[in-house]
Amino acid sequence: MPTNSVKGYDVFSDVLKELKASDDSIRELVLSAPNQPVEKIVEKYNAADVFLFTSRKGSEGSPTVVKEAVAMGLPVVSVDVGDVAEITREVTPSQVVAFAEPWGTPAAREALVKSLADAVTEVLDTKSRSNGREACGWLDSPHGSPNGSSRSTGRWSVESGR
User: Fold this and answer.
1) Which domains does the chain have, with CATH numbers?
2) pTM (two decimals)
3) Quick check: bond before 34 cis, omega within 30?
4) Which of 50, 82, 86, 123 has minimal CB crowding within 10 Å?
5) How far is residue 82's CA from residue 64's CA, in Å, rounded to a whole number?
6) How far is residue 110's CA from residue 89's CA, in Å, rounded to a whole number?
7) Furthest C-alpha separation in the chain
């Protein structure tokens, strides 16, 4: 289990729990692992059906892992952090979910988990990869970001038997 609390694994786990309540084929696929060869990460991106990104509000700049998912044609469902909305603006299917307000309350957290679970379900229902590579020509630029920045992040995604 990932231990960096800024990455929101607790929210990810609660979204996964909600998804599994209505679809027992849903399962977690952890993309990152210590000393993992790049080839294994590519295999995992290819095996996943959607990338769920749950970092804490105000904790990200330009998440590399979201750009990787987009480049791999993996649909993204993310909280609205950093430049994720800009990165995924033309990527379909993908969704960015705003943090419920007032953030930090149990009700806001519960609303966020429900919104993320609903967004993942909608994306999974399309049964398709994203148009990420085609929609984001800037991925081929030397900076790999619409705003030229780069940062590393935690990595989790969701697989379904759909």
Assistant:
1) 5-159 (3.40.50)
2) 0.84
3) no
4) 86
5) 11
6) 25
7) 43
